[in-house]
Amino acid sequence: MLRLDSLSCGYGDMTAVQELTLDIPDGEITVMLGANGAGKSSTIMCIAGHVNIIGGRITYNEKEITHATPMARIKAGIAVVPEGRRLFPSLTVKENLIVGGYSQPNENSRDSIDRVLNLFPRLGDRLKQLAGSLSGGEQQMLSIGRALMSSPKLLLIDELSLGLMPKIIDLCYEAITELKKNGLTILIVEQSTQRALEVADRVCVLESGKEVWQDTAARARDNAALIDTLLGLN
Ligand SMILES: Nc1ncnc2c1ncn2[C@@H]1O[C@H](COP(=O)(O)OP(=O)(O)OP(=O)(O)O)[C@@H](O)[C@H]1O
Ligand SMILES: [Mg+2]
């Protein structure tokens, strides 16, 4: 569905990601791992059109989108759950969801909101609550929900479980599994490897902006010690 071909991107003179080649197959969950500063967020934001491309190309559903605008990418079905959630804190839960559906004015936003509330029922009791007053877990659910409002085909999630309690992490991963069942293609960036490897189909490890390991999740699970070493965890 998405292919990065020798993609390099960065900020001014600084190269954050160097010649990354990655295939994200339709309907699969790809997990990207890497230590702090490895280039994970830069990769996600580059796919979404927010980071300057230095070289290489991005192809989405057979079409080149290397230089497409962020809005064109959203309209084509690419949605992001950004690191730090980036909600609108002084808007309500419902208003945040409506903003997420902005790119699809013709779609029935009531249906889209209902889909999100089916996935995260606890947001349903809080539709009028300000997003800034939600717990961390609820904010992550809202951030995922807001991204889903654009009816994406490819969902990019940066740091799915960072700072969340195990129970909430379980809820988020259950939602991810449900979304995959419904045909969504998902790229998850994670620091905590174990939970991510349980749902992943493919795994890519970045170090200092370069890919150092890429294979099926089954191989990643068989090589857990090696992956931990690449991440500097042992
Ligand atoms: N807006 C920016 N301007 C300049 N440099 C940046 C910017 N954002 C990121 N960088 C740099 O790009 C490199 C990759 O950062 P990035 O945020 O992509 O890493 P990451 O893998 O997401 O790290 P973390 O696990 O801490 O979130 C880092 O050296 C970082 O300092
Ligand atoms: Mg990051």
Topology:
Elements: E1 2-11, E2 14-24, E3 29-34, H1 40-47, E4 52-60, E5 63-64, H2 70-76, E6 78-81, H3 93-100, H4 109-119, H5 121-124, H6 136-148, E7 154-158, H7 166-181, E8 185-190, H8 193-199, E9 202-207, E10 210-216, H9 217-222, H10 224-230
Helix pairs in contact: 3-6
The chain binds adenosine-5'-triphosphate (ATP) and magnesium ion.
Description:
This protein has 234 residues and is of the alpha/beta class. The protein has 2 domains: 1-77 and 154-168 and 185-234, 3-Layer(aba) Sandwich (Rossmann fold); 86-151, no CATH class. 37% of the residues lie in helices and 28% in strands. It contains 10 helices and 10 strands. The protein has a 6-stranded mixed beta sheet, sandwiched between helices. Strands 2-1-4-5 form a 4-stranded antiparallel beta sheet, with helices on one face. A hairpin with a 2-residue loop joins strand 9 and strand 10 (210-216). Helix 3 (93-100) packs parallel to helix 6. The chain binds adenosine-5'-triphosphate (ATP) and magnesium ion (MG).
H-E string: EEEHEEHEHHHHEHEHEEHH
When the domains are counted, the total is 2
The count of helical stretches stands at 10
Per CATH, the superfamily of the largest domain is: P-loop containing nucleotide triphosphate hydrolases
What is the typical, i.e. mean, pLDDT? 93
Helix content range: 25-40%
The number of distinct β-strands equals 10
Query: What global shape is seen?
Result: globular
Question: What molecules are bound to this protein?
Answer: adenosine-5'-triphosphate, magnesium ion
The poorly predicted ranges are: none
Determine the N-to-C terminus distance. 34 Å
- Secondary-structure-based class equals alpha/beta
Q: Name the CATH class of the largest domain.
A: Alpha Beta
Rg (CA only): 17 Å
